[in-house]
Amino acid sequence: MVDNDRHFSVKNVALFKYYDRELTSPFFIKKLMEHLALDLQSKAAGGDQSFVSLGFLRKLVIALPPIEEQHRIVAKVDELMDLCDTRKAQLNNAQTTQVRLADFIVGQAVE
User: Fold this and answer.
1) pLDDT per residue over 86-110, tens digit each?
2) pLDDT value at position 19?
3) Same domain (yes/no): 11, 50
4) CB-count exposure of residue 110 (10 Å: 0-12, 13-18, 19+)
5) What's the confidence (pLDDT) of residue 93?
6) Quick check: helix, strand or coil at residue 45?
7) Fewest CB within 10 angstroms: 8, 70, 101, 104, which?
8) Cα–Cα distance between 104 and 63 in angstroms, integer?
9) Pair 73, 81: CB distance under 8 Å
10) Residue 23 and residue 53 in one domain
């Protein structure tokens, strides 16, 4: 996400701009585009380097909820992602404990 209004160019990259800061949340657009990118990859075409055509992107229609709902969606997604990160850390800790316990039991059995 680019956080300034200066004009710039990047070759072979589609930039999505939002037109009205009062009607769109850049954080909502970013999360939407991240999700959309997964779907667009399946529509990519080309030989050595697959791509989604600019014509396809220009025809892409995206429905936007009201700005208040965009903020609620972003907050909820962030909350759920934090929960996923916490659960992943807990799972990793449990797996580490399980390996240590298995090593201890095998060690005790060998002695």
Assistant:
1) 999 999 999 999 999 999 999 999 8
2) 66
3) yes
4) exposed
5) 95
6) strand
7) 8
8) 56
9) no
10) yes
Quote the domain boundaries for residue 103: 65-111
Are 56 and 88 contained in the same domain? no
Residue 28: name the closest of 78, 96, 99 by CA.
78
For residues 56 and 83, state if they share a domain. no
Tokens 């962030």 belong to: 78
Weakly modelled stretches of the chain, pLDDT under 50: none
Residues 52 and 9 occupy one common structural domain: yes
Indicate whether 7 and 47 sit together in one domain.
Answer: yes
Q: Whole-angstrom Cα distance, residue 38 to residue 54?
A: 17
If phi > 0 it is left, if psi is from -120 to 50 it is alpha, else beta; for residue 16 that is beta
Residues making up the chain, counted from first to last: 111
| Residue with tokens 């585009």, as numbered in its chain | 33
- The predicted structure's pLDDT at residue 18: 61
Q: Provide the domain count of the chain.
A: 2
Q: Specify the 3-state DSSP secondary structure of 51.
A: strand
My answer on whether 2 and 31 are in the same domain is yes
